[in-house]
Amino acid sequence: MQSVAWEDLLLTHVDNVDDMWEVFKNELLNRIDTFIRKMNCFQQIKKDSWSRPLPPIVREKISKKHRLWTRYMETRDAAIRNLIAISRWAPC
């Protein structure tokens, strides 16, 4: 955008801001079309791991911990709180 001679482009539209905006917008859109690559089908580049980035065993442990937390919030049982602490430090 630095290589564009803005003064020369906008000089003819000094009296009208709307025309200046149109010139700027058209130049910007032309540069976008020229220099930014177009992607038509994003499904081809998607990986299965993007939809589920965590391994199944980790997702299972997160789910178990979430269930434990829910049970603890319902009952406020100290035994469940201890299970949460154990699951927090459990190795994957």
Structure description:
The protein is mainly alpha-helical and 92 residues long. It folds into two domains: 6-35, no CATH class; 46-88. The protein has helices at 6-11, 17-35, 48-51, 56-75, 78-88. The two termini are 50 Å apart.
Question: What's the quick description here?
Answer:
With 92 residues, the chain is mostly helical. The chain is built from five helices and no strands.
Gap between N and C termini, in Å? 50 Å
Q: Give the averaged pLDDT, no decimals.
A: 83
Largest sheet: none
Gross morphology: elongated
Structural category is mainly alpha
Give the topology, please.
Elements: H1 6-11, H2 17-35, H3 48-51, H4 56-75, H5 78-88
Helix pairs in contact: 4-5
Q: What labels would you give this structure?
A:
2 domains, 5 helices, 65% helix, mainly alpha, single chain
